[in-house]
Structures are given as structure tokens and as C-alpha cells.
Amino acid sequence: MLRKPLLSLLLGVSVLSAACSDDEPTPDPAVLIIDRDTVDFGELDVGQSSPEHLFTVRNASPTAVESVSVKVEGSGFTIAANTCEHFLDAGMECEVRVRFSPRLAGLNEARLMVEGAPDGDSAVLKGLGIGYVEVRSLPGDGARVVAEEDGWSCDEPCMVPVRRARVTLRAEPVGLPTWGGDCAAVAGGGCSLTMDGRKVVSLEELESFVRWEVRRDSHPRSVATTANGDIYVLEIGQLQRLSGTGQATWSVPLSGGVKLALDGAGTAYVVDYSGRVTRYVGGLAQWTSSESTETLSWHNLAVSANGHVYVLLNLGNGVDGQQLKLIALSPQGTERWSLLFDEGQFNHASGLEVNAQGEVYVSGSAFNRDAASGEPEHVASYFRKYSAEGVLQWETRNNWYLFAVNAEGATSTLLPHHRPTGGFIQLWIDANGNTQWDATIPGGPGVVTLQTFTSTSTLLIGGHELLADGAQRGRGWFSAMDVTTRAPGPATFVEGSTGSAGGPVRLSGLALTPTGHVVVVGGFGAGLDEGEGFIRLYDSRVLTGAP
């Protein structure tokens, strides 16, 4: 930028040019300079005006400037007085007085521009606006207001300076807040403020996301909901039916139930460790299938809307060898057909699902044991679809451990990233076995361990946090997956106890009620049956982030 020494430099160049040319010398271009490069006006409350700062503009050339003008480009600064409005002779000066009047909190920056000559000049103007948030009331019971961007919080009425143009307030503990005052609602129940002055807010009410909770002695195994809003929960030693308000309507003792499924009429089916399936109506066992296994195992169960039952049994002790057997049962409990999976020495099931038409989806893999080293050798991986009569429709050479099938027969598969930053890869496979798309979700609230389609084809996903060391389990979480945008919705964290932080939490089941509320079952502890279990009903608004 040109400054005072420029005059002598320009005069010297002019003399040299005249001495080296027979032509008439060309006048040097006029130059206007401001006496300072930058001025910091400091901090000032929004709506106030600072003292004026003086800037001197000099015509640093031998040529007069016919029409000098100055202006401010940017916000927060105004010209209070100005003598640089007309003719400015060579070597002469004029003055500009600038005032800082912030209209928004945060950093205000502008430029003072002087024009009228081929070479103009500018100076940077800086100032920090300060707004104030006044929190006038809170509902008590440990509630507090937290500034999302600023990091400050209030657990009682307070007045806080804010040095940002916008700030979002959240309520803690996480719940459904009712805000009053100058708030603009944002997703997730936040209060957004544009800091163009003093803002007054109040947290009038903080309703818990959890509508009710039932504590259990151990972790429930699985959960399902009926069309009328009742809730079935499979636990160690019993099958329990609850109303939509969490009241037990009946329970029946069980011996080793491992998986629960419902048909379209809301009838419950349970498979136990031995592979026997029992159908329950009104709290009474209607029938029990006859086939069982010698070795107790976690068998898979799926039931179609019309009551056709499919059970995938693990045959063998898993030490010398293991086969899989898929058995189709009628609604009356009689065997319709069966398939044996014996493609290697060890056959492992990864999942079993059924669509609304009764078509069956099986995923698994097969291994042999190397005779010399004893190490497993991969033989096959598969994902297969069978008709309701057991005829193979198609297969792919993949082994999906985490898949779900919607009513139309499309499959969502998830490949989780087991790292603290979470994330996963999702593939969408149509009813004919063709991969329609895949999407990479680079991060998220944690590791995905559950996914399930609801009766409305909403895809619920859930899992747990993986703490920074990459080994310890943290809080549980769940959200709705938008399969159109291929993006998870807002995540709801499942704390160690209602309304307070804690962990670790293990989720074992997710379901949606007809009114859109989310039923979550699991337990407090990293391992299965470590600590108490719980059944919780979360408000439907947690899935959308609506206030």
C-alpha cells in the first residue's frame, strides 16, 4: 500500500522519465492514502455507539483530485463526519470520522474506502458486538439451559453476555422443552436467538422423552407391538403383555425363551433354547412344535402376517460340526416343509426374516476346519430368498449379520464401523435380489447393533456408544433411518437411568406403537444380564426432533 514516501519516489521517476525521452512527460496518476491500515474499535453492546475515530486522507501526488469520496463497505460502522467530499489539491488532507454501532453480536468487520483517484486506499474496521441473554425462569427439578455454541449454562435465572450473532439454547436433561420469550424453535427442541439486542427467554416446562419406564431384574430378550398398541416383551423366565401405558395385562412363565415374534393378528410365538416354538393366545399356550435340538442354542424365529412360522435351528454341538435346519410350520403348528443347510463342517446362521407374503430370507456361512492347523477355512457365504413353499428364489454370495426386510420384500443391510466415531455402510436390496444403492454414513452416535422395520415400514436403528478407548460401551441410542434420503434422523440417547446420565447401556429390542411412540428394551451393563433391565416408552417426537 502506498504511503508518504511515495511522493518523492514518484517525483524521481518523473524526472528520470523526462530526461530519457524527447516526448512531453505524462503526469503521474493521483494517489489517495489513509493514514492507518486498520482500527479495532473494541467491544461494544449491540445498539450502542462508540466514540468517533478520526481517519486522515492525503493526496500523496503532485496532481489534484477533482472529486474525493469515502464510503464504508460492511456492517456495523457508519461515517459520522466527512470533509473528503470534493476537490483535494496535491499534498493536501481531509478528514473522516467513523463510529462503531453494532447491530449484531459477534465480530463486525468492514472497510473504509476512499475513491476518486486511480490509486485509492482502504482501511480495515473491526469491532466486537456484545448481546445479552436473560434467562428469567426455569422449571426446577435439576433443569438447566445450555448454550450449544458458547458452552455456558444456567441452572437458575441469569444474564449472560454473548459474542456471537446467533446462539442456540438447549434444555438439560434432554427432553421436550416449552420455551417462552424471544425463542425461535429449531429441530430437537432448541431455542434459536438472533443476537440483535438483549434477548429474554424462559424455560417454562421440560417434559421427559420417556413416557414411562418399567424396571426389570434382568435384560429383556426382545420386544414387539400389536396393532392395538399392546406390547409383548420376552424376558428370562416369562412372556409378558403390557398395555400402551405400561400396565401388565398378563404374563406366562417360560423355560428358556430366546426369540419373540408376532403375526398380523397380534398372536405371540416364542422359540426356546431347544428350538421348540410355542404359540400363545390370551396368555395360554395353544401349541408347541415337536422338533428340538440336543444342544441348547440361540435359534432364529420369524412369523408372517398370516401366521406361518419359520424357525432356523442350529444342529450339532458346534465343536465337532454344526448344521442348520429351516422348518416351516403352519398356523396350527404342523410342519409344512424343511431345508437342511450342510455346506461345510460348520454352518452358521446370521439371520432369518420374513416378508408380508410369507417369503423367507436366510443369511449364513459355512466353514471347514483345517486338519493340520485346526484353523477355520471359509467355504461359502450366502443371502437367500425362499418362497413361502420353500423354493429358492435367488441368492447372493454375501453374509449379512445385520439385515431387515420390509413388507414389500426389500432388504436393508448395515455394515457397522466399530469405532468411537460410529458410522456404517448401508445397502438396499430389492425384492428380486438386486442391489439398488449403497450409502456410506461416515459418522454417528455410535456402533449400530439393531435394525428393524415397523409395520409402517419405518426403519429403526440403534446401538451403543463406543468410548474413546475403543473398547468400553457407553450409552445406548436409537433413531429412525430415512431410506429415501439415506440419512439417519435425530439420535435419542438411552441413559443409565431416566432423566440422568449414565452407562453403559445395552439395547436388545426396538419397536414402534401405532401412535408412533418407540418401545425400547435393554439393560444397564455392557454384557448380557449385567445389571438391571428396562422397558421404556419414548415419545414419538424423538424420531423427528420436533419440539
Please, could you describe this protein's structure?
With 547 residues, the protein is mainly beta. The chain has four domains: 123 residues, Immunoglobulin-like, CATH 2.60.40.10; 73 residues, no CATH class; 185 residues, no CATH class; 146 residues, Lipocalin (Beta Barrel). It contains one helix and 45 strands. Strands 2, 4, 7, 8, 11, 13 and 16 form a seven-stranded mixed beta sheet that branches. A five-stranded antiparallel beta sheet has the order 10-9-12-15-14, with no helix packed on it. Strands 38, 39, 40, 41 and 42 form a five-stranded antiparallel beta sheet that branches. Strand 28 and strand 29 form a beta hairpin. The radius of gyration is 36 Å and the shape is elongated. The N terminus is likely disordered. It comes from Corallococcus macrosporus DSM 14697. InterPro entries: 6-blade_b-propeller_TolB-like, Ig-like_fold. This is Choice-of-anchor D domain-containing protein. Keywords: Signal.
Explain the layout of strands and helices.
Elements: H1 6-19, E1 32-34, E2 38-45, E3 53-59, E4 69-74, E5 77-82, E6 93-100, E7 106-115, E8 121-135, E9 144-147, E10 153-154, E11 158-162, E12 166-172, E13 175-181, E14 184-186, E15 190-194, E16 199-208, E17 210-216, E18 222-225, E19 231-235, E20 238-242, E21 248-253, E22 257-262, E23 268-272, E24 277-281, E25 284-288, E26 300-303, E27 309-315, E28 323-329, E29 335-341, E30 346-354, E31 360-369, E32 376-386, E33 392-396, E34 403-405, E35 411-416, E36 424-429, E37 435-441, E38 447-453, E39 459-466, E40 473-482, E41 487-488, E42 492-494, E43 505-512, E44 518-524, E45 533-538
Parallel strand pairs: 2-8, 8-16
Antiparallel strand pairs: 1-3, 3-6, 4-7, 5-6, 7-8, 8-11, 9-10, 9-12, 12-15, 13-16, 14-15, 17-45, 18-19, 19-20, 20-21, 22-23, 23-24, 24-25, 26-27, 27-28, 28-29, 30-31, 31-32, 32-33, 34-35, 35-36, 36-37, 38-39, 39-40, 40-41, 40-42, 43-44, 44-45
